[in-house]
Amino acid sequence: MPEPSVLYDTEGGVALVTLNRPDKLNAFNEEMHTRLRECLRMAAADPGVHAVLITGNGRAFSAGQDLGDRVSGDDADLGDTLDKLYNPLVRTIRESDMIFVAAVNGVAAGAAANLALACDIVYAGRSAKFIQAFAKIGLMPDCGGTWLLPRLIGESRAKAAALMATPVSADQAKEWGMIWEVYDDPKLLEEAFVQTRSIAQGAVKANAITKRAMQSAASNTLDQQLDLEKMLQRTLGRSQDYKEGVKAFMEKRPPKFKGR
Ligand code: LHQ
After folding, report:
1. 199 in contact with ligand 1, CB cutoff 6 A
2. H helices present in 201-250, as ranges
3. Quick one: average pLDDT of 181-205?
4. Which tens digits make up the pLDDT trace of 67-99?
5. Quick one: DSSP state of residue 4?
6. In 3D, which of 213, 215, 250, 252 has the Cα closest to residue 234?
7. Please, are residues 209 and 232 in contact by the beta-carbon 8 Å criterion?
8. Is residue 188 in contact with ligand 1, taking CB distance under 6 Å?
9. 3-state secondary structure of 122
10. Does residue 53 register a pLDDT over 90?
11. How many helices (H) and strands (E) does the chain have?
């Protein structure tokens, strides 16, 4: 039996999701989309999983859309492809209570670059590159790239990176604030896993609320955000995890959070 196009494993509260078409640089075909959705459903349905770590097998994270997979014929409707395959993925990442982490182990091109950047925390291997490859094939950035990139790195860098499809190195991406951290390639997955596991074993209710509040800031005024913080912090102030966090601090021991 052939290997699945996306590998799934769980450990320590983390679902490790590995894009697995290495001979095609993990480019997305329809089958891979189906399998990825299935993996994300398994993660969401598992009460022991609180974070998802996405990486790629082989030398690339992903080359984006598989350009051989029925998206370039005369009757191809790319809007439909986005609507059915990519946009639900971006929405799942952003709307989930779980924390999504990307470990970008090599090139992340086109849709894959923006899927990685949609994750809550992005790590990259030193040799990784983020390429808004769309311009080279007569397209525009999708998967939320036109929304996310100007917010992450500013409009001038976002436009230049997209219009010239210039590869952005991992170190440059970190310097610009596009990603969180860069590790030497052999260390990437281990480091990303350890940190994702520590998030998954943290105060998961507070983590989910923090994610939601940070994302609300994009469309809220400061006043609205202050009101939102008041409401959400009130909820967290009544949680068992908060009581445990303070108790553990006073007793000079690590907290044992239960997500309640
Ligand atoms: C590929 C691909 C690939 C198939 C490498 N497909 N085989 C689009 C349409 C529909 C709706 C949704 O939105 C989108 C968004 C998009 O994602 S558009 C952007 C699609 N991606 C690209 O344009 C990137 C194309 N790939 C490249 O530019 C290069 O391959 C990169 C820079 C990623 C890596 O370059 P190299 O390291 O030099 O590797 P390579 O080019 O030799 O590729 C290795 C193999 O992978 C090769 O196959 P082969 O049989 O010759 O060994 C490539 O044909 C295949 N491959 N990307 N997207």
Report:
1. no
2. 204-216, 222-237, 240-250
3. 98
4. 999 777 778 899 999 999 999 999 999 999 999
5. P
6. 213
7. yes
8. no
9. strand
10. yes
11. 11, 10
